[in-house]
Amino acid sequence: MALDPVSTSASPVPIRVASTVLLAVRTRTLWLRARPTQVGAVGASNYSAERVRQTLDTSAARALTPFTVLQPEYNLLEREKFEGPLQELCVERGLAAVPYYALASGFLSGKYRSSDDATNRPRGAAVTRYLNEYGFGVLQAVEAVAFEASATPAQVALAWLAARPAVAAPIASATRVEQVEELLGAMRLTLTANQLARLDAASRPRSKRNEPEAE
Predict the structure, then answer these.
(1) With CB atoms 3.0 to 4.6 Å apart as the test, which of 10, 15, 19, 118 could cross-link to 124 if both were Cys?
(2) pLDDT at residue 49 above 60?
(3) Can you give the residue ranges of every domain in the chain?
(4) What pLDDT is attached to residue 19?
């Protein structure tokens, strides 16, 4: 049984408390806070598959409102954090995933081509990790599909996400009205099976490159 450190005003020394106990308390507290404010749904962000499952089971056992929404980091360049046990759990339990950083901090829009492009930009530091062979390979595949579909790279990246199992809607940021209009266009874009397969292949996590393709 995992233990979490907890400190109280009466005792500044951390007390080891079973994680299952803390989970029940946190779930109950969240439920009580939701009731008076008429919250329609309860969700979580950056939870592991194990913790989501524990929370859902705790909610069921105590007749509490369960999580129905999960907000993971997920995009064409960051697939390993969500795909696998966490995505499978969302499908199994009917949780709606709303991925953040859907455009990989803007890299998948195609506006970052070098470290100079990222200099003095709000998300420049986050983008630099994609300025490599893998990142540009994924972007090249995105741009090729965008050309075929008469769409923008950002729209293609979002349409790919929207087509993934358990994903209800991707989250992307906009600072101008024209960007909002562009992002909304992604929801009207339906990629072909061939286009989705090519994007899957190009963005396949590097740790799985030597594994056989799924049938």
Answers:
(1) 118
(2) yes
(3) 17-71, 73-206
(4) 45
Burial-class residue 1 by CB neighbours within 10 Å (0-12, 13-18, 19+): exposed
Q: What is the pTM of this model?
A: 0.78
Read off the pLDDT of each residue in 19-35 and give the average, rounded to a whole number: 51
CA 148 to chain centre: 26
How many CB atoms within 10 Å of residue 148? Answer: 14
Across residues 66-83, what is the average pLDDT?
94
Core vs surface per residue 54-76: b (16+ CB within 10 A) or e:
bbbebbeeeebebbbebbbbbbb
Of 149 and 22, more confident: 149
Residues sharing a CB contact under 8 Å with residue 7, sequence separation 6 or more, in sequence order: 13, 14, 15
Tokens 């874009």 map to which residue? 189
Vertex 189 angle, CA 184 and 192, to 5°: 160
**Structural contact between residues 74 and 82, judged by C-beta atoms closer than 8 angstroms:** yes
How many Å apart are CA 58 and CA 68, to the nearest integer? 14
Angle, alpha carbons 99-104-110 (nearest 5°): 135
Whether the CB-CB separation of 47 and 87 falls below 8 Å is answered with no
Residue pLDDT, tens place only, 110-161: 988 877 766 766 666 778 889 999 999 999 999 999 999 999 999 999 999 9
d(CA 192, CA 151): 13
